[in-house]
Amino acid sequence: xxxxxxxxxxxxxxxxxxxxxxxxxxxxxxxxxxxxxxxxxxxxxxxxxxxxxxxxxxxxxxxxxxxxxxxxxxxxxxxxxxxxxxxxxxxxxxxxxxxxxxxxxxxxxxxxxxxxxxxxxxxxxxxxxxxxxxxxxxxxxxxxxxxxxx
Length: 150
Prior knowledge:
By secondary structure, the protein is an alpha+beta fold. Helix content is 32%, strand content 21%.
């Protein structure tokens, strides 16, 4: 393992093969993704990221003002992967709205799962966010989530 850049928290490492739970929020916590079209753009970008060999998306949920993303890093750094997703989704959203401006806050939070943590339990916790937030009564009614175990 080696230190991966000045923008990473002190002690943050990007370890290939490791599973991480990432969280990032919208600029000023605006509920950008409460509407269908912006949410679809981000969902498309998450799926496109999964087609690259640099990371595997295990589970994700896009809430109105934030994203939880469970990934297994294959190569590169967490910072590169999050920056790519945020950049591509912001460009797509601004293009759709014919505007410019920030979509995401700077930075992100990450939690490296310990070897003994149950990855599927973490994934269930991630995708159940809309239920806990009271956005839906059944998870099947919420459109912006996915997990590889389905």
